[in-house]
Amino acid sequence: MTLPATGRGVPTVGEQLAPYSLTVTLQRLVMEAAANRDFAPIHFDGEAARDSGAPSPYMNTTFNETVFEVLLRNWGGLDARIEVIEFSMKAFNCVGDEITAGGCVTATREGPAALRRTECPSGARTQRSAARRSPGSAD
Predict the structure, then answer these.
(1) Contact 132/125 with Cβ under 8 angstroms?
(2) Is it the case that residue 130 has pLDDT exceeding 70?
(3) Rounded-to-integer distance, Cα 124 and Cα 36, Å
(4) Which domains are seen in the chain, by residue range?
(5) What is the C-alpha to C-alpha distance for residues 134 and 34, in angstroms, rounded to an integer?
(6) Closest CA to 46 of 84, 92, 110, 115
(7) What is the CA radius of gyration of the chain?
């Protein structure tokens, strides 16, 4: 992530990002799938989701990525430039789950044009799953 030298202040190693939580609802899944034209039934049809091994309809890749982006935007502000978001989907985020994302600043360094580059490994968890840490960073 690249942060302007002014604005939110200088990030420090060890700084915790305020957790971001949301409840996964069928309405959110349908709206997000429609916006991204992801019409796979596993994201809105209970029977199709169960046939794929999930207990109910679940979030798609873009929705999962959005959770991490909101976490980073809430922390870094709208002027921050997110260069990379990497994550692995190791469990279903299903209708009724409350997903919580969080992270911590692990590195910071000066970048070009008075920008500060900051690495923030993050993870997400639900009440059904252990914390899942994204393997990379939001750089």
Answers:
(1) yes
(2) no
(3) 22
(4) 2-133 (3.10.129.10)
(5) 26
(6) 92
(7) 16
